[in-house]
Design goal:
Helix content: 10-25%
Mean pLDDT: 81
Largest sheet: 9 strands, antiparallel
Structural class: alpha+beta
Strand content: 15-25%
Radius of gyration: 29 Å
Shape: globular
Number of domains: 2
Number of helices: 9
């Protein structure tokens, strides 16, 4: 029988106890040590109190000891399994799939992930995550790779803008910000939307508008065209007549060009209003008035009664890490109770009239104009 001290169960000294009672006392004490041994499901708090509870149970069971299994069913005493069998199986380290999250294979500067968004943020008691379609934008967002806990939010030039233990910071997404001050607040939804469709090969959906309403489809970039400014306007010009397939590093340069010319007004034109009851992950709150701000719904959980909570992602101006914001240290989840606005730190209250969704492109030829 295995115990915690030297991997052996030591029987107490019972020579002064009558034979039958002493034997029962000894067996009960040994059984108590076995039951007090740690298991993978016990927390550190439970482990701290387990030995004293086991001793109490063993002494009260002296008249008629009845050991039980972990499921509560009576059983006969049996030797403990070998230490190797009782130990927990080591958890494999988290590895994000660069086919789903292509920037992970780039040589840009970003924190290395150690968990997915779903694994990092457990739902509150009584809630369950809403069902999402496999391969959907909502499912993709749920699997976003997260930087290690305690990672600070950094600006494009490497300065900390939110400490890793900030009361209103839940976590940082393991994705690059870029060196220029380009990927600002309203660009967060463009970045996530574009990366999702790039990973799926849905390149027809990767098209956005400039502030002057110029279509900026990725397909033109692939053909060797580039965006060139002319005063307050921007135009496409041919830089490379051959064009052809481009890698993700080149795709990332295309996104920087989009960030440079898109703004909250052009984002409003590229998206459509959404009713509060139709809310899904991937929808976003767009505040187009100064100071402009976008908060992206990253995940949703609900109770059987219909009450919902959501995780929100954002970045601010100047450009900084995309991060998950929280209402306070108690929880990363925001209550979703339309028409009540969602109160968040660092921005005005999020009104349900500002809820939008990126519109699907049904006629790719239109984006070439």
């Amino acid at each position: 029988m295995r115990g915690s001290e030297g991997n052996a169960c030591t029987l107490p000294f019972v020579t002064r106890v009558p034979c039958a009672a002493g034997l029962v006392f000894a067996l009960a004490a040994c059984q108590g040590k076995h039951e007090a041994g740690p298991s993978p499901s016990q927390s550190s708090a439970n482990l701290a109190t387990a030995p004293s509870a086991a001793v109490t149970a063993s002494t009260s069971a002296l008249p008629s000891p009845t050991p039980t299994t972990s499921l509560g069913a009576p059983s006969s005493p049996s030797p403990a399994p070998p230490a190797s069998a009782a130990s927990a199986t080591p958890t494999a380290p988290y590895t994000a799939d660069p086919k789903l999250y292509p920037w992970l294979a780039d040589e840009r500067d970003f924190p290395k992930p150690d968990a997915s968004l779903e694994a990092r943020f457990a739902v509150p008691p009584g809630y369950t995550r809403v069902k999402v379609e496999p391969g959907s934008f909502a499912a993709w967002l749920r699997g976003l790779p997260m930087a290690p806990e305690g990672t600070p939010v950094k600006s494009f030039d490497g300065k900390d803008t939110l400490a890793g233990d900030d009361d209103y910071l839940a976590g940082v997404v393991a994705i690059d910000t870029g060196n220029p001050d380009l990927q600002q607040s309203s660009d967060v939804i463009i970045r996530l939307h574009a990366e999702y469709h790039y990973a799926r090969g849905d390149k027809d959906q990767i098209t956005y508008l400039s502030a002057t309403k110029l279509s900026m489809p990725f397909s033109r970039w692939e053909r060797g065209q580039r965006l060139i400014p002319n005063g307050p306007n921007v135009f496409w010009v041919i830089k490379n007549k051959t064009g052809g397939e481009v890698d993700h590093a080149e795709f990332r340069r295309y996104l920087d060009a989009v960030f440079n010319w898109a703004n909250s007004t052009s984002l409003a034109a590229r998206s459509a209003p959404v009713a509060a009851e139709a809310l899904v992950a991937g929808d976003f709150f767009l505040q187009s008035q100064e100071p402009n701000h976008v908060a992206v719904v990253l995940d949703i959980a609900e109770k059987p009664s219909g009450e919902r909570v959501a995780l929100l992602g954002q970045a601010r101006n100047p450009a900084e890490s995309i991060h998950v914001v929280r209402p306070g240290k108690a929880t990363p989840w925001f209550s979703v109770r339309p028409p009540v606005p969602v109160l968040t730190p660092h921005s005005k209250a999020l009104k349900w009239s500002d809820l939008r969704r990126m519109a699907a492109v049904t006629s790719p030829a239109e984006t070439e104009k």
